[in-house]
TrEMBL record:
Residues 22-43, 315-337 are annotated as: Disordered. It comes from Asparagus officinalis. GO terms for molecular function: ATP binding; ATP hydrolysis activity; ATP-dependent protein folding chaperone; structural constituent of ribosome; unfolded protein binding. Belongs to the heat shock protein 90 family. This is Histidine kinase/HSP90-like ATPase domain-containing protein. Keywords: ATP-binding, Chaperone, Nucleotide-binding, Ribonucleoprotein, Ribosomal protein.
């Protein structure tokens, strides 16, 4: 079972049995003798015993030297059937291929196989066929097995030289079989054997034979320049060697005479890899390929693998020696120091089983436990979590196949790709493909899809609610996508959907739960689409339904609304969007509606004329209870949420957006005070500017509260500020006892008078006085407002502007004094070629203005420092701001 690349171990054959552990391919790789014969050393693991065979030359008193240590126990010698050591080698026979090799080889290498990795799958499958054939024949011909009863496959690699050796203990081949089977492409020995089995009707069961096309062996030339096949059939006393190169038109057959290479039975295949394909000689690479393609082959497959274990060794250190000394009495007081050690990794080579996982799908589902399914899933798909569910079944009919389906606990990143690796097809235990381009075989698909739905439904109905919540978190989007694209499976998909609702904001509910909790008079399944649960539960569309205790589904995922629209109904209950027109709540009163329309008919027309093309119509609402109005979408148009999503997808293209927008209906609540006031205004003063502006503000507000995006947010902000200015003007003024009797002064009515600038120290602040008019000092046209200014101000009203600015700043931010205003109105002084620097503004100017504003009772001294606005000053500034806003509009 050892490769011919290392003669030290390849000399070990099977005519003589040798009880020994797994041995490396060089003397440096042989484990320590302490581990031989199953004895476990203190540092290393216990090596498993292995029976080897050792060949001897006929008429010789010594065994062929296998170059192994003398500690191996050798016994039971047998004479070899090969030629004597001193005899001449038999002639080498050369054969021409029976077909045009260059064309067929090109077909095999470049067309027949799309992936070079499959060479190992084909060769291991051939070895499995040979073993299976021997096992089958051994039932009626026990002498074929003889003493070598082990049926296995062993793969050894030589990474440095790029050599792979595959050895099996199967049926082997005679010289005639070598010529007939390997010398003719498309001539399969396995196919011949199957034919013979059928003719003789001796097959009692499935023989698990794989090869059918006669070209599997030639896949070796995908990666090899030269291939050597050494085989020994129990039907023959001789071992023969078949050898060929990839670019040759012929092959050779000769008898094996080297005692070190003789086999008791079976076939050894040696591949000499191409330069670009020597990476396949890596032991880890071979092990991965075996686990991927041949993990479930019915015979054990061993790979020659390097392993290691950690042990402690002593470290030579002078300091570790004992210190000797004597005390006054002459006694020895030496102290033995503890020896220092270090951990090292001891490496060794041994055969490692690569296909320990058994094909669980071949067993009866009743005999397989959940733990076995979970273990099989983790090993096969390299997962660390158990699956949420599994399904094991057999399908019979036009095509018979066995399947094991699993629902994973986590989602893989490549799940949305067209080509996935989640479905693995095995034929006769050998992996064939996991590339289906997103489509399964038509005959298999229907059955597999149905079973997958049954598994998911079982998870949703289980008592452990967390399992389905985890499944929904990982795969919910794909179920919604199925509702959109797979109409034929709507009935299976709908029960699996989950949503939040007005009655369940923290836990998902299914449609079955919703239908069971519906009110007797409820006619539809109501839903609202929004960007979050908070937005959904605060929408005005929900007001009347909350009063009636109707549950409403919250569709907060972008795909929810599209999926629901694709379903249309569930259990004969239609889905109804509460944000669209013609909402039927089952409580219509035609007489009352007629009276309301007569009362508000003129108001409806008046509002429609004001809004114009912004809305398709104005109607009386049956869905509002506390809000004055709402903007609903047309029955066949997009909702506000869908319009928002489509606007993001079209990247704001105006032409596409206009096409996507549906009609909008402005619904009013006749019971709301604002609507009642507008109803009066429409009859008494329809041209009133404030009433018309109120309609505009109502529309803009309804636009936002209904989930739409305003066309001009800045214009809407201006309208709201104006409304607030009018509504709150004078609302927080001081009580009448604190208000001075003089009428308020505004900056617009100030009369200036020239006075001398004050000479008081900066630390002295004037006391509050009765309001007076602002006096314009005589120096306003000649004074510089700061050292950084080169000239006096040009604007004759600069003093008033500065005073108004300072009053406004105190209004907005209390506690500003002279020093603060010096910094606010400071600037940079230019210094010619030198860098400019910051200079404060004039403190005298700031102090003079503050004194005048305090004299007018607009500001006052703040006990915490600086100045503060007075109640009169606040009122005066609010009035000025209101008039400016109205004038600007």
């Amino acid at each position: 079972m050892i490769g011919a690349s290392r003669r030290s171990i390849s000399s070990v054959a099977r005519s003589t049995r040798c009880f020994a552990p797994s041995i490396s391919t060089s003397s440096s790789q042989i484990p320590d003798s302490r581990s031989i014969n199953g004895t476990e050393s203190a540092q290393g693991p216990r090596f498993s015993a292995r029976w080897f065979s050792l060949l001897t030359a006929p008429n010789s008193n010594r065994a062929a030297n296998p170059k192994i240590r003398s500690s191996l126990l050798i016994s039971n010698r047998f004479d070899s059937t090969a030629a004597a050591v001193g005899s001449s080698d038999p002639p080498v026979e050369k054969f021409e291929y029976q077909a045009e090799v260059s064309r067929l080889m090109d077909l095999i290498v470049h067309s027949l196989y799309s992936n070079k990795e499959v060479f190992l799958r084909e060769l291991v499958s051939n070895a499995s066929d040979a073993l299976d054939k021997l096992r089958f024949l051994g039932v009626t011909q026990p002498e074929l097995l003889k003493d070598a009863a082990d049926l296995d496959i062993r793969i050894q690699t030589d990474k440095d030289n790029g050599i792979i050796t595959i050895t099996d203990t199967g049926i082997g081949m005679t010289r005639e079989e070598l010529v007939n089977c390997l010398g003719t492409i498309a001539e399969s020995g396995t196919a011949k054997f199957l034919k013979a089995v059928k003719e003789n009707q001796e097959a009692g069961g499935d023989s698990n034979l794989i090869g059918q096309f006669g070209v599997g062996f030639y896949s070796a030339f995908l990666v090899s320049d030269k291939v050597i096949v050494s085989t020994k059939s129990p039907k023959s006393d001789k071992q023969f060697v078949w050898e060929a190169e990839a670019n040759a038109n012929s092959y050779t057959v000769r008898e094996e005479t080297d005692p070190e290479k003789l086999l008791p039975r079976g076939t050894r295949l040696t591949l000499y890899l191409k330069r670009d394909d020597k990476g396949f000689a890596n032991p880890e690479k071979i092990e991965n390929l075996v686990k991927n393609y041949s993990q479930f082959v019915s015979f054990p497959i061993y790979t020659w693998k390097e392993k290691g274990f950690t042990k402690e060794v002593e470290v030579d250190d002078d300091s570790s020696k004992s210190d000797s000394s004597q005390n006054e009495g002459g006694e020895d007081t030496s102290v033995e120091k503890k020896k220092k050690t270090k951990k090292v990794i001891e490496k060794y080579w041994e055969w490692d089983l690569a296909n320990e996982t058994q094909p669980i799908w071949l067993r009866n589902p009743k005999d397989v436990t959940t733990a076995e399914y979970n273990d099989f899933y983790r090993k096969t798909f390299n997962e660390y979590l158990d699956p949420l569910a599994s399904s094991h079944f057999t399908t019979e009919g036009e095509v018979e196949f066995r399947s094991v389906l699993f629902v994973p606990a986590t989602r893989k990143d490549d799940l949305i790709k067209e080509k996935t690796k989640n479905i693995r097809l095995y034929v006769k235990r050998v992996f064939i493909s996991d590339d289906f381009d997103g489509e399964l075989v038509r005959i298999m698909r229907k059955r597999l899809v149905r079973k997958a739905f049954d598994m998911i439904l079982g998870i949703s109905l289980s008592e452990n609610r967390d399992d389905y919540d985890r499944f929904w978190e990982n795969f919910g989007k794909f179920l919604k996508l199925g509702c959109i694209e797979d109409k034929s499976n709507h009935k299976r998909l709908a029960p699996l959907l989950r949503f939040f609702s007005s009655h369940s904001e923290n836990e998902f509910i299914g449609l079955d739960e919703y239908v069971e909790s519906m009110k007797p008079d409820q006619k539809a399944i109501y839903y609202i689409a929004a960007d979050s649960i908070t937005s959904a539960k605060n929408t005005p569309f929900l007001e009347r339904l909350v009063q009636k205790d109707y549950e409403v589904l919250f569709l907060v995922d972008p795909m929810d609304e599209v999926a629901i629209n694709s379903l249309e109904s569930y259990k004969e209950k239609k889905f109804a969007d509460i944000s669209k027109e013609d909402l039927d709540l089952g409580d219509k009163n035609e007489e009352k509606e007629k009276e309301i329309k007569q009362e508000f008919g003129q108001t409806i027309d008046w509002i429609k004329n004001r809004l114009g093309d912004k809305v398709a119509s104005v109607q009386i609402s049956n869905r509002l209870s506390t809000s004055p109005c709402v903007l609903v979408s047309g029955k066949f148009g997009w909702s506000a949420n869908m319009e928002r999503l489509m606007k993001a997808q079209t990247h704001g293209e105006p032409s596409s957006l206009e096409f996507m927008k549906g009609r909008r209906v402005f619904e009013i609540n006749p019971e709301h005070p604002i609507i009642k006031e507008l109803n009066v205004a429409s009859r008494t003063n329809p041209d009133n500017l404030e009433a018309l502006k109120a309609i505009d503000i109502l529309y803009d507000t309804a636009l936002i509260s209904s989930g739409f995006t305003p066309d001009n947010a800045r214009e809407l902000g201006g309208k709201i500020y104006e409304m607030m200015s009018v509504a709150y003007s004078g609302k927080w003024r001081a009580p009448s006892a604190e208000v001075h009797p003089d009428p308020p002064r505004t900056l617009e009515t100030i009369e200036a008078e020239v006075v001398e600038p004050p000479r008081t120290p900066e630390t002295v602040e004037p006391e509050a006085v009765e309001p007076t008019d602002m006096e314009l000092p005589h120096w306003t046209d000649i004074v510089k407002t700061g050292r950084f200014k080169e000239l006096a101000p040009y604007d004759p009203d600069w003093y008033y502007i500065r005073a108004a600015s300072m009053a406004r700043k105190i209004y907005l931010r209390q506690g500003i004094g002279v020093g603060g205003f010096q910094k606010i109105y400071g600037g940079r002084k230019r210094n010619g070629s030198r860098p400019p620097h910051f200079c404060k503004s004039s403190g005298a100017v700031a102090r003079h203005i503050l004194q005048q504003l305090q004299a007018m009772n607009i500001i006052d001294v703040d006990t915490r420092g600086g100045r503060k606005i007075t109640s009169q000053g606040r009122r005066d500034l609010d009035q000025v701001a209101g008039r400016i806003t109205i004038a600007a509009a």
